[in-house]
Amino acid sequence: MTDPSAKRTKIKRELDRLAERHELSDFAAYQIGANVFRKVKNGDYKKSAEKAVKKIKETDFHKAAADFWYGKPHEERRLGDLYIKNTGLYKHREWRGVVDTMYYFNMIWLYNYAAMVMDILKSDEPLSFFKGLARYRWLGQTYLSVLHWFDRGLEGMRGPALRASAWHYRGMVNETIRNFMRMFACDTKLHGDIENHRWHKTIAHDETVNGNIFYGWRDVCDDVPLQMIPYFVSVHVNNKTVLNYIDAVQSIGLPSDPCPMCQAEAGLFVQDDYPDYSPVMVTSNEACDGSVATSILHDWFLNRPLFAMPQPMRFDDPLVQKNCAKEIEECWKFIEKELGIPFDWNQYVKYAESFNKLTEFEHEKWDVAANTDYYPVNGVAQALYRIYYSQDGDRKIWHDVDAHVRRIMNRSVMNRINSFPKTRHRVIAWSCAPLYYSNWCTWAYNCWGLNCIINMDSLMYDVMLKTDNYEDALMSLAEFNEKAPMRSMAVGGYEHIFRLWEFMDRFHCDMVVMYDQLQCKGMQGIHGMFEDEFRKRNIHAIWIPHALPDKRTVSRKEIRKIINDYMTTVMHEEPLDPTLVEFDDDESW
Amino acid sequence: MKDLVHLIDFEELLQEANNELVRKGKEDGRRALGYTCSFMPEVLLDLPGCFAVRLRAPRSTSPDIATYYMSNRTCPYGRCLLERALEGGYNFLDAEMATETCTVTTRFQEHLQMMDIIQNPDFFCEFTDIPFKRTENSVDHFTQQLQLHVLDKLQEHFGIDTSDEAILKAIDEHNEVCRLITEIGSYRKLDRPTITGYEFALINLVSLTCPKYLILDQLRDIAEQLKTREPDERLPYRVKVVLAGSENDDPYFTKLIEECGALVVADRHCYGSLPGREEIHVEEGEKPLRAIARHYLNHSECPRFMEQNVMRERKQHLADIAREYKADGIIVAQMKFCEYWSYERVIDTIVLQRDYNLPVCSIEKEYVNSNTGQLRTRFQAFVESIEFKKLQNAGKGGAS
Known about the structure:
CATH topology of the largest domain in chain B: Rossmann fold
Strand content of chain B: 5-15%
Helix content of chain B: 40-55%
Oligomer: heterodimer
CATH architecture of the largest domain in chain B: 3-Layer(aba) Sandwich
Low-confidence stretches of chain A: none
Distance between the termini of chain A: 61 Å
Number of domains of chain B: 2
Low-confidence stretches of chain B: none
Shape of chain A: globular
Structural class of chain A: alpha/beta
Strand order of the largest sheet of chain A: 2-1-3-4
Radius of gyration of chain A: 28 Å
């Protein structure tokens, strides 16, 4: 029988030799040694080997091959296991089967990284990107996290849904880069206070002023929404960017209760974190009292010719159209005067007609979403893309994206491919969404089978622009702008916000996710009536409280908890993927 | 100072919306027309056969049911109005002439439309679209809106005479009230004012909430008395201030400020007289309705106006009022959750001090001011800071 102490001495000597060879510290070497010793002593290696043999015997290789080739079935994916604890970041991306994983790697990950570089190189002044990166925190904090934004929104997607949704994301990235590169190319702050020729040919406007107002100058000038990229887009990509701006505006005395979107917009000015790229500014009263009030700060900080282009509140009243049209016309005169470039009717017609094609396709998409199970666009892509392109106005990239999506959608319908086969409830999302968690619907589908078919802001701007003559064009443009996000449904009479019932029927939805923007006075002011109506109509509605861009008020985790609680205690349902029920992603982008 | 006549009666009248004079007006066969916003021309609601009642919810406590409907994150004024309506406090109203001007009062008025709250079979609630500018386009638009949503509706529902002659008559009566209120208010401009801010607030509020034809005599009496009213020998205040800001229909709030040693010499807020009590002038050849529309747009100082020049002139206007009324400082009081005044208050606080050298006390208030102790501390500190500044300036002057 071997003397145990002799055995220990032998092992120690062997470890010392190993440590010397691999330059391990004594402590690390002893740790390894101790583990090896323990396992040998306990016979763990033998057990492990036995286990492995048993597993091989039990393995269904047929299924394993299928899982490898097609990806695991929904209930077996365990997507929550992919997260690094407390971060919401991935240890690695999910295996979606060979075809979809390859597609994701090549056509989404690689393609978009390359496109992000190419988009900058194709811009007027590529080098200004680096100046902007150093100057503006919103760019520095978001550019490299873009692909994680894709990952979050496209998690669990397969087949047509993966492809169509990703094209939507691609369109938004391209247009974002085009917008900020235009701003940088004109920006006096990046050009030693010099107002270059581009500066004189760029129109700055509030992000809530629609791009279609400026079609008459599109060939000779450019129009860029001032806060769209620095605040609105960046908070979707990285929810931490905006907190700084909200704090900044409160530091000059603003109470914390006004709409945090308006606060964040105003905070950009307080922090001097906006590019100075235009001789003018156009603002509007869209969508609420807060938008009106922030014009005061715009004027104060920008201190340059500013045109306020308010739209009437009671827009169902036929008498208000003339007033609205006249305001738009006054805006055009203002631009002509300040930029010295006349409005070009032909340019307007060209872009308005082109934009109508986007609206036509949107109608097709709604039709497929409402009446079939084969709509290949997930909730977050639908919501973000629709609000982005319709607010931005006609651009080539939107047509390119729509061409791809049309192809995918047609194939999906023809081949009857249900991209969301685990749908338990068709959901309509109402009111304004949490910007820091716009991808909640991706999670809700993966975890609970809640398929968000349509959302309120997708349904606005539902007006075709007329181009047969100037008067009709102006009137239809007025009507279009009256039906802007958080306006079409939220003002001008309570009957608009209660169009929810009409759209529930139209899109065959059986459940409502009711966004409860805690600082939106308009929606808070009608909260109880919704509660009454939900009860009266026996509709399942989950209220999601949030503070638009400010994740500190209600975190993503809390939002998930509210949905989880409703699904278990009221609906008595089991999660499709239990690993997604609870995880902490507070530290995530 | 010797007590003003009728003031005790006025205090009593302001204890409820459906007060003695409102009841008297109804008994006289007139229609009671409610409204909330200064953009709704009260002169049109005072046409023969009806009278205007600007809605208040005096003696409100906790608006619990309204908070269920509108949540606790909305303007308490709107909520208190809804609570009072749900309690049956506005059942005397024959109509609510609504405006979509600020979000929460809009929602309150929509609740009147949606729910069967006002127990009056004749009741209806009609919205008018209010422009955001003072341009000719806005005046045209406002005129049209008033015709369709106010005059036509009054005629249709109650057979009110809305002819130009009737409007001109209403303008005359309205102007008389404005003249009297302006005259009464002008005593606040004196070096030693002979009327307090609280007294003036009562008078102005009564003129907004009671049938005007029933208070004209009292207003005349007060104006007459003020001609000879002597100030106290020992000043009952230490500084003079302008009270600016959002909705404020609580005379006790003004009283609270005055108890802290600051005489309120000017009221530039939603329920104030600056603006609010300017006479309406009808230009030659101008239709009276258009004159009214123009008047209300040109005189409003609401932060809802978005034109660049108007946004800038508002600060100047407030500074001018402070100079005209010889105020030592300005209190900008914002109703909690009022988005317009959240931003306006920030800018006022910065600009008026920096560009006009006017001390500003910037506060956020509730509709029911139960936190009186905190406010009192703020006002006392403000008064002391102004006094301290005065002493410093006097010292500098002496040294030079």
